[in-house]
Amino acid sequence: MGLLNSLKKPVNIKTSFPRFSGGATGSSFTSSSHPIKLRSFQELPPELFAIAKPIFRLLQAQVNKVYFQSSGAEAAWNIKDSSGHIFEAESISLIGSHIIITGSSFGTMDVSIIDSPSNINQCSISNVGEFLQFNYGQLSVTCNDFALLEEFKRLCMISIFESVSIYKALTGTVISSYGLRMSDMHVILNSAFNFKDWCEVYLDDQGWVKVWCHIDKVTKSNSDHEAKGKYQIRFYRDDKSTSRKNCVFFIPDNEYVQDSFFYNANSTKPPKSMNEFFQGLQMIKLVGNVRFCGDTDFNDIMDGGSIYSNANNGSGDSSSAALHNESPNTTPKSRTFFSPKGHKRNGSHVSSLTSRSTKRPITNFTTSSKGLLIRPLPHHGVNHLEAMIRFIVPLMDCARLYGRPVQFKTDRTDINSLMFGLPKLPSVDYFAQEEIAHLMTQDFNPLKEKDTDDTMALTMSRFSSYLQERMTKLSKRNTELSFRTISDVMGVCNPTRDDTKAISIGNGNNLAKELSLSEKSNISSDTADVMNQFQVNARKYQNTMRECPLVASTSPLA
């Protein structure tokens, strides 16, 4: 009773915070240097731009990177669209994560091999007969040179690996740099509280659907703290019941989850500025298996809680209508911030220590390996990046990713780190040219150690394992092997950004000047230093609060 009574007492939080020193820029950050009450909640802190700039440039470079080029003079290429029509292609290229095909009968086709407005949650590469099929039939490609077709497939997988890896590093950077200004970040990192909040998830053939999410990190019995399958991420139709009948889908911690990171699948073009990019960074991509409850009626969910759903199955980004016409920051007219039954939303919640998971296991389910796209709902007075941080950290804790729930791993040589394999500027490649040559041979099997049928999960698992082997065997690979640099990849002509007219993306000389200072630094070490310092200060702040009980309702989102 004494403990329960103490929890009811208000918490006196000290106004002086520990100093955040060090970091990538060499400057010292203190919470008093950017007090939340003196800043606009929608204003992104300049520290975020300063620390994330090198990784943002890596992302821009990856968009321009030419992974593959072939013309009809080299081999005969044929393509098949989603309707089954077969066309002869004059040329085929892979630039960034986009397949660009030209032909006299159809002009130019641009198809993304990762999530984009025209193929959200449809990332897939598979061999179907003589064709290499992308996005579950959105595009199929064949070639009279099957060795060249296999090379094209593997280079597509390398492109996916590099794109996802950069987003993972960006996620760690955002969490650490933006987390410096969140007054209760120590609670998010160090507590065993469960997490509850509204979010949107993307369901195939349904679109974005609003659901009530529980991320249960604790159980009733302390002896079960390390028991597999006891901690679960559950999504419910509404916040009125946590019964099995109300559950739509769930992910226990004994299920396969490969990665989880911040993601931007809204844009069809490379972002022009960091502010534009971060304003559009509103999704969380979970790569792995999801268990859908066997008695789920998706029409019932859509009738009660649909936001909007006009999924498009067009043949390419440049020729298909976008899924949304709204900008990332525009609220659709049909959107309401109410639960599916019309009750007003009360914001996010963190459960109290006495409200712990005692849920019975769900045994009637089907497993999907396509993962999830999650969009945390914005809160009044809270920046969307802060809402995403509050959501993704408990998610990583439950899935046991990147060293969580103990501490984020930040070593670029650690396969379980968000920063794993991060290139050192001016290099922009995760794999050296010599290593890529090996990845094209029969000695490397991309299907080895197959844990899943999902292309993105398989790619991240297999290529991460190979990169870890190379980094372990050759400690000086960054200086002894050949890597492409910023100047090698910028200024590439992309024929799809203005229909059939080729234009240049970016300016290699200007970008090289802009990165002149960054080239002298190790971006992987800089970002890791920021993340390490962020965690150290969170623990220091937690220690200063040990004499004061923490009450869940004191959270600004409660």
From TrEMBL:
Disordered: where is this region? 313-361
| Regions of compositional bias (Low complexity) in chain numbering | 313-322
Q: Polar residues: which segments have biased composition?
A: 326-337, 348-361
Q: Which InterPro entries match?
A: Skg3/CAF120-like_PH
Q: Where is each Skg3/CAF120-like PH-like domain found?
A: 182-251, 366-420
Its name, as the record gives it, is Skg3/CAF120-like PH-like domain-containing protein
